[in-house]
Amino acid sequence: MQPRHFLTLLDLSRDELRALIQRAIHLKHHPDRDYQPLKGKVLAMIFEKSSTRTRISFEVAMAQFGGSALFLSPRDTQLGRGEPLSDTARVISSMVDGIMLRTNSHETVTTVAEYSRAPVINGLTDLHHPCQLLADMQTFFELRGDIAGKTVAWIGDGNNMCHSYIDAARQFDFKLNIASPKDYQPLPDIVASAADRVALYADPLLAARDADLIVTDVWASMGQEEEQAKREIAFKDFQVNRAVMDAAKSDALFMHCLPAHRGEEVAAEVIDGPQSVVFPEAENRLHAQKALLEFLIKP
Ligand code: CP
Ligand code: NVA
């Protein structure tokens, strides 16, 4: 039987995603160290890029569930010396119970999933970051209830996080206003896939109007460091600051997947202010991924 994978939010049904969020909330509020559904199970974690939250949350989730996690970098494996992805996927998945992958190209995760006989989880690619959306949705549900029918404003780069927000708008049924500089828009086919949910704006203040949630991310993602100076110019009017928060509803939340650059994509007074929920959001990576691992790997 083919395993289930989690490469984008579209790999789970709407009902499965909602159940997973509720399960994450339950696991968070009913900690039980005797509950070890993944006892003896092993998750291989391949990181082509840096990580604090993703690595720690998956490793801790496996440990708390009675299993273990292997940290693998291409530098230390034959992947870095050119062993085909298809062979690597077959070999690793013959020994472990799940593979978590953080890579540059989204095609890498789809290829690994194609050849893996164990579930594959996307821990971030250039196109998507679905695990972060589980944590973000959990955080919204916990603090504000159901996100269906609400308005979310994405201010900034039309990047991997923005694409996963577009998928989330479809799956969780909210309205998504996106304000990005003209050369940094989300991919048209991803926008088109959610045309009835997504609206594009040139002005962050208009995108933020009456929003229930404001979200942003770094101006230069991992691998784009050499574009930093150019991007600082292109994005200078796309900072989430007091004016943007004031355009939203008075009880709007602020989220950021982190790491953040205060004074660039977000003003310090916003990320460190009362509407910011970035630290519960980061903690929820652990709870949401426990629910995900249980869903994908538990026998
Ligand atoms: N938000 C997030 O994925 O953080 P890391 O890059 O630290 O894993
Ligand atoms: N867009 C960012 C997200 C980091 C979690 C990046 O890809 O670097």
Task: Give an overview in words.
This protein has 299 residues and is α/β, with parallel strands linked by helices. It has 2 domains: 9-129 and 284-297, 3-Layer(aba) Sandwich (Rossmann fold); 132-281, Rossmann fold, CATH 3.40.50.1370. The protein is built from 12 helices and 9 strands. The chain has helices spanning 14-29, 53-64, 85-93, 106-115, 130-144, 160-172, 188-192, 204-208, 228-234, 242-247, 268-271, 278-297, and strands at residues 42-47, 68-72, 98-102, 120-122, 151-155, 175-179, 198-201, 213-216, 253-256. The strands form 2 sheets. A 5-stranded parallel β-sheet has the order 7-6-5-8-9. The chain has a 4-stranded parallel β-sheet with strand order 2-1-3-4, sandwiched between helices. The longest helix is centred in the C-terminal third of the chain and has 20 residues, at 278-297. The two termini are 13 Å apart. The relative contact order is 0.16. Bound molecules: phosphoric acid mono(formamide)ester and norvaline (NVA). Norvaline (NVA) binds at residues 124, 129, 159-161, 217-218, 221-222, 257.
SSE inventory with pairings:
Elements: H1 14-29, E1 42-47, H2 53-64, E2 68-72, H3 85-93, E3 98-102, H4 106-115, E4 120-122, H5 130-144, E5 151-155, H6 160-172, E6 175-179, H7 188-192, E7 198-201, H8 204-208, E8 213-216, H9 228-234, H10 242-247, E9 253-256, H11 268-271, H12 278-297
Helix pairs in contact: 1-5, 1-12, 2-12, 3-4, 5-6, 5-12
The protein binds phosphoric acid mono(formamide)ester and norvaline.
The assigned structural class equals alpha/beta
Give a count of the beta strands, DSSP E runs of length 2 or more. 9
- Whole-angstrom Rg: 19 Å
Distance between the termini: 13 Å
Q: What overall geometry do the principal axes of the alpha carbons give?
A: globular
Per CATH, the superfamily of the largest domain is: Aspartate/ornithine carbamoyltransferase
Strand order of the largest sheet: 7-6-5-8-9
Query: Proportion of β residues?
Result: 5-15%
CATH fold annotation of the largest domain: Rossmann fold
Biggest pleated sheet: 5 strands, parallel
Q: Which percent bin holds the helix content?
A: 40-55%
Query: Quick check: average pLDDT?
Result: 97
Uncertain spans: none
State the domain count: 2
